[in-house]
Design a protein that fits this description.
The complex is a heterodimer of chains A (254) and B (367). The longest helix of chain A is centred in the N-terminal third of the chain and has 10 residues, at 28-37. Chain A is 13% helix and 41% strand. Chain A is mostly beta strands. Chain A has helices spanning 4-9, 28-37, 122-130, 141-147; strands at residues 17-26, 50-54, 68-77, 81-88, 93-99, 102-107, 112-115, 160-170, 173-182, 197-203, 209-216, 219-231, 249-252. With 367 residues, chain B is mostly beta strands. The longest helix of chain B has 16 residues, at 154-169. The chains are: A mainly beta (254), B mainly beta (367). Chains A and B meet through strand 1, helix 2, strand 2, strand 3 and strand 4 of A and strand 13, strand 15, strand 16, strand 17 and strand 18 of B. Strand 2 of chain A pairs antiparallel with strand 13 of chain B, so a sheet runs across the interface.
Amino acid sequence: MLDLRALLTRAPESFRTISLQCEAEYRTAILQREMLRGLPNVTESDPPSTATFVDPSGDDATGADAPLRHEWNVWWRRPDCWRDDIVWATDQIAVCIVRGAASSFYLSSSGTLRMNTGSPGTIERLRSMIQTRQPGYLPSIDDRLSQMPLVRPAPLANGWELSELGEREYAGRTAIAVHATRLGQSSPFGLWSYINEYDLLVDRERGVLLRCAGMVGRAEAGVLAVRYMTFDEPVSDEIFAFEPPPGTRTLIDR
Amino acid sequence: MQTPSGSGCINVFRDASRVHDVAAPPDATQTTDRGFTLSQRARNQFVSLAALLLVAGALSACSDDSSRLDPVTAPTGRAAAFSRGGSLDARDTVSCEIAKLMPDGSYRDKAAKFLVSGDLTSPTGERANVALHDSPKKGADPTRVVACQLPNTVAAMAWLAATFHEASDSVSNFGKASATVDYAPAAALPGARPRLPSGDSTAHSLDCITLDGCSDCPETAISCDPGTGEWEGPAPSDPDQPQFSISGTDASLGPIVCSGGTDYPHLSGTPGFFGNVNVHGWTQCPVPLNISVTVDLARQRCILFFCWWSGVNEGFNSRLGTYTDANAAGACKKGYWRGTSTHTAFFPSGQIGGSQTRQTQFIFCPF
């Protein structure tokens, strides 16, 4: 008898390295509706206690029902080398790299590379003398794992009701189809705290998720689906080095 | 999944979410079901494709009665054709992939170098804006998806595929290229784009390319045996199979609505912070973005009838994700306290959005 919870919990221990390409697809209209439903009542104040804001260049004509997609690629050489890239169709890309104590975050839309190693250039030193700036995001592996649910699905083992729906082949691997329902006090899982049901495909051998669909009713509100995945294959050091495009502003946060 | 089926077959998924593959001839490197390899032999066959397809256009029984076949001669003399019911719309997008052929015969999508960029014009006059992510150095930067504004005919799609076919051939070690198209039925436009995964009844499908006597491809065919002319293999529309090509990347993004809020300033009950006034601000978005929140805690001070807000503390947090929060705390003193949060998000359009929220509360201190 397969112990599904143990399988999910042990997932990261089942490999030394993992490389995966994942496709993310979101029904933003559904997600936004669920997200806003969970908000506290807006109080009358200026500014209000709760507010929404929208992409100023969002294409309304596309329609709120149009799915939004990006790619999400992950390399993890356990225990302490991580990289994940989010690539949008608009060419915007976000790159998180953690290598031991070193951490960096590149965001193409802001043209910045934040790091906690290295020394700032002369211009940056001068700029810091006259202008204080907020520290920015520096990823940690734990934080990235909390955002990328496919690799470490262990939270599902605690506080979620798991219903096995049989086996099937997916991405060339044997998977167990599982329906997960959030119970009262569950471990945070996935990208959306307001999504309480997931349809999952769990890799039978490794315990990682091959597909994770956040369900609202019978609709898939958001899907992360593996396109390609390898285990225990060498991941070169080059993967964990990132050279930003020319013109990128490098910010050193310690 | 599909295995190489011999020479001369272009394998075309009937699913809209998969467009075409070319299987490798025996003398070529092994191919996968996601792309094609180019050998001299395959290249020659591709050159002859134009003529074949003109015939195939008439003979093809690949699609249903409503389908049409658009033979197109690519600028290079190569040609490809697709048939399907309905027509593409200018709103549609195409994504293309080029992958590096590794010595062991596998493909590595992560190593593509610059191949094609800029505006391309098809033989039929449609323009395709093609932007290929580049790996500037070391081959380590893993971007490789091509997002193309789709020309408005299937013919142009075929041309685009052929163009990429050639582009991949012009760079050593690049053995695979594929193009996928994401399109909506005309009846659904303007408005929602149907989800591409197979089984979606609203999605049209690209049907097949016919070559080398492989003229009949049933619904389930993804592979053609040139010896027998029969198509074989599992249906690509099997919902249990990974949908490689839902990467019909959409360059025109719909509105993304994020939210932010500030909770009431309150007495903290957290051990170690008891006796502090605490305020909590948060930002959340439905998709993972670079989001941040800054929360300022201020206390009202008054002299006679003049009152103002005096800043006490500030908290900040940011993340690449869907939710982030921050706290600010200060030693309790009786009076009005105010938390003000500033929320920002970097949207995939390149724009920054944001808002500000605020809560005020009168607080009595326990001691």
